[in-house]
Design goal:
With 426 residues, the chain is of the alpha+beta class. The protein contains 16 helices and 21 strands. The protein has 2 domains: 258 residues, no CATH class; 135 residues, Conserved hypothetical protein from pyrococcus furiosus pfu- 392566-001, domain 2. The longest helix is centred in the middle third of the chain and has 16 residues.
């Protein structure tokens, strides 16, 4: 099924570029302009200049020129041997110290309909156009797509653990306190053994849907223009692969904020929703513990926050109503908290349709609970819906059913750092 292999990563030469901690950055789509400029101020060789270019009349062209200049100057150097790159993140979440470990490799691009690489979320065209322009200008992947796999035989992860018992080749602590470690595996026999374990496995995209679809479009573009033939490096994309059963996997919820609805009326919302939900007063200071308790009971629940400490708890009465509302959807998709919220409340009760959601006309998103509260208190938003996280198993079930969740249904934490390994496509 999934075809994976090692590659010669492009990596920073820290003797010339500086400390690796000053050269890396979080994913481009969660970086503010102020943060971007600070990264460059700290070290002008920070990968942000390649991953999120803003300088020059044509920033994409500037990124391509910068990449070539850094390679020519030895700031970036390509590894001599095809390798796999074991990657670990150590972090704190929900009050506990955790770690998650996988490996970075090349994965052969396959159309979704082939059922080898499976998505779980919808994507936006604007983001894909941006990533395509960057890829066309640089011929490089600067960040990894994050994917999960099922290891029924329990063979790959023990091998990964064994290979990473030594001192890492690189280690850094980012500004959020997350420790990132990297081990380089060069033994061809070991690489072949790991790759062989994936011949019967599917991959489930956890984070990076836009980049994967862009990689497919870029591959097809190169073939159509005769710039690359089948089997070229552009037939592959760089991925981090993690065992879906890894106990270190953490998914944060993504909360919904509503703005500018011309006739928003909480009382009408309660009246329209009462047939589906038990609605009660919620203690605004106990929203997260209340939802966590219901989450552990497998209840479908969320909190509506109206500002000034006013909150309502919505608990679904009967999951069977989703089968009536979404008869063509799989059980896995119907029973997601976000599906319950979107179908019964956002669409039916508030009239925010799918196109509106996709264009974020009346809806926006945040993973930060405090922000979901503060922006309603400030009057910037009319209300927010506080959710529980999507379970990792639910992500796999929806993808396996060949369906996609609503946008922003998952937020894997921590994000993969950008700049430790890069993948040249030429």
């Amino acid at each position: 099924m999934a075809e994976i292999k090692g590659f010669k990563a492009l990596r920073f030469n820290t003797q010339k570029a500086g400390e690796i901690s000053s050269l890396t950055c979080p994913p481009y789509d969660i970086i503010s302009e102020e943060q971007r400029l600070n990264f460059i101020k700290t070290n002008p060789y920070n990968v942000i200049r390649l991953e999120l270019p803003r300088e020059g009349e044509n920033p994409y062209q500037t990124a391509g020129e910068t990449l070539k200049a850094w390679e020519d100057a030895g700031i970036l150097a390509q590894d001599a041997q095809d390798s796999l790159y074991i990657y670990e993140e150590e972090f704190t979440a929900y009050g506990s110290k955790k770690s998650v470990k996988g490996f970075v490799c090349r994965v052969k691009l396959e159309e979704f309909e082939k059922g080898v690489v499976l998505p779980h979320e919808e994507t936006l065209s604007k983001a894909k156009a941006d990533r395509f322009n960057l890829m066309e200008a640089t011929n490089c992947n600067f960040s990894q797509i994050y994917s999960l796999y099922v290891d029924e035989d329990k063979t790959t992860r023990p091998l990964i653990e064994k290979l990473s018992q030594c001192t890492p080749d690189q280690e850094l602590t980012d500004e959020g306190g997350v420790i990132h470690r990297l081990w380089v595996v060069t033994d061809p026999a070991v690489i072949a053994e790991i790759a062989g374990g994936f011949t019967s496995r599917k991959l489930y995209i956890a984070d990076g849907h836009h980049r994967y679809e862009t990689a497919l479009n870029f591959r097809n573009h190169l073939r159509q223009t005769a710039a690359a033939k089948e089997g070229a490096a552009s037939d592959y994309v760089m991925m981090l692969l993690v065992d879906m059963e890894h106990e270190g996997l953490v998914v944060f919820p993504t909360h919904r904020l509503v703005r500018d609805l011309p006739s928003f009326n909480p009382e009408e919302l309660y009246a329209k929703s009462a047939q589906y939900f038990d609605i009660s007063e919620a203690d605004a200071s106990q929203i997260e513990p209340t939802l966590e308790k219901l989450y552990n009971q497998n209840k479908k629940a969320f909190v509506l926050y109206l500002g000034d400490g006013k909150a309502k708890l919505f608990v679904l009465k009967d999951i069977a109503v989703l089968a009536e509302k979404l008869p063509k959807a799989s059980k896995a998709l119907r029973e997601l908290d976000v599906t319950v919220l979107h179908s019964l409340v956002l669409e039916e009760a508030l009239g925010i349709d799918k196109e509106n959601m996709a264009n974020q006309i009346n809806l926006t998103y945040t993973r930060v609970f405090e922000e979901a509260i503060a922006k309603v208190d400030s009057g910037e938003f009319q209300c927010s819906f506080i959710l529980n996280p999507t379970r990792v198993t639910e992500i796999g079930e929806v993808a396996a059913a060949d369906e996609k969740m609503p946008q922003k249904s998952t937020y894997f934490y921590p994000k993969i750092i950008t700049g430790m390994v890069m993948n040249k496509l030429v």
